[in-house]
Design a protein that fits this description.
Shape: globular
Distance between the termini: 7 Å
Radius of gyration: 23 Å
Number of strands: 11
Number of helices: 11
Helix content: 40-55%
Length: 348
């Protein structure tokens, strides 16, 4: 039985690390399959969506290995409006791996540690001490985890040709981990380019996206900021996906879905591993253009449509029934009925 204090943000036991990691890993993989099945992304968008989710999964697995037997530090999960690890955990991982070479030089020899484990288990018939397990976990962590695959605060995708069905020449993607919300967002932009060679302008595009579109804000504000700072680029369609909150036993927020699940877990109506995932898509489209500025400093801007907002919920069948029963007003406002995903079953 795993006891999780609902008012605590710290995972402080081996059981909790394993349990939490299994939940996040399972749910993100279910999400990828369902997003494809429900056609919430185009085929090209889906390729990038999978890549960003893989970075997220890789980073959380790295955290699991890093903290598994560490008695001094514990991984923190955001409880406010996320259910995912606190952003600082990703920052710690990234910074930690910058010093990887220094740590590797100080690690115990693997064969020497293996001999100690075998001696302790087979000859002495005693469990391996936690400090020895921590040394083993550190070897795995520092020799196998790659810094370049850690989900950073901002992750830039490549500029590629847009699909023939799109109303623009090019598309690009990026992802960011919002520091205020502690959860990931994935963005796509379709655009035309007035210059001759997009390769010569791509660094400028990447720079502007990183400084202008790296946090949650009104999508039309983001679109205008990109448009204003990139005079040779004409954005036509911007799409942003918000992953979360992840409603589960480790979360504690004011969200009605989270509250309903926690209350039902507490009353033993549903099992401890029950979950739901909120998923939001916001889009804006350029309909026409207008000019601003004087004769010598004229710039063309896009007129943006109203923001198209679509809310979704992914949950197993039993949780969908529960949410219809307890929060029908939320379910009725979704873009489509809750999308059913598989139950997570953890053997006790």
């Amino acid at each position: 039985m795993i006891v999780t204090p609902l008012d605590s943000a710290v995972l402080d036991s081996k059981e909790q690390y394993i349990f939490y990691h299994k939940k996040v890993d399972f749910v993100l993989k279910e999400l990828i399959v369902s997003v494809q099945k429900e056609n919430l992304c185009t085929s090209k968008e889906l390729v990038f969506f999978k890549q960003y989710c893989d970075l997220l999964l890789y980073s959380i697995e790295a955290m699991r290995v890093k903290y598994m037997y560490d008695e001094e530090d514990n991984m923190k999960v955001d409880l406010t409006d996320s259910g995912f690890p606190n952003y600082l955990e990703f920052r710690y991982l990234f910074n930690d791996l910058s010093l990887k070479d220094n740590y590797v030089a100080k690690l115990r020899d693997v064969s020497e540690l293996q001999e100690e484990f075998l001696d302790q288990l087979l000859r002495k018939k005693q469990p391996v001490r936690k400090d020895k397990l921590f040394q083993a976990a550190s070897i795995v962590y520092y020799t196998s985890v790659e810094q370049k695959y850690i989900f950073n605060r901002f992750v830039q995708g490549k500029i590629i040709d847009a699909p023939e069905t799109a109303s623009a020449q090019y598309m690009t993607s990026w992802s960011f981990y919002d520091v205020a919300h502690n959860r990931p967002f994935i963005c796509f932009m379709y655009f035309d380019y007035d210059g001759r060679n997009i390769e010569s302008y791509k660094d400028k595009i990447y720079e502007v996206l990183k400084s202008t579109a790296d946090r949650e804000m009104n999508l039309d504000t983001m679109a205008y900021g990109i448009d204003r700072k990139l005079p040779d680029l004409r954005p036509k369609h911007i799409k942003r996906i918000d992953l979360g909150p992840f409603h589960n036993v480790f979360a504690k927020d004011e969200n009605e879905i989270t509250h309903t699940i926690l209350k039902s877990i507490a009353s033993k109506e549903i099992p401890l591993e029950s979950y739901a995932l909120s998923f939001k898509i916001h889009e804006v489209f350029s309909g026409s253009e207008f000019e601003e500025g004087g004769y010598f400093s004229k710039q063309v801007f896009q007129k943006w449509s109203d923001i198209v907002k679509q809310d979704y919920v992914f949950a197993p069948h039993r949780i969908i029934q529960l949410l219809y029963n307890k929060t029908p007003e939320i379910m009725n406002l979704l873009a489509k009925p809750p999308i059913e995903v598989a139950n997570l079953i953890i053997k006790k």
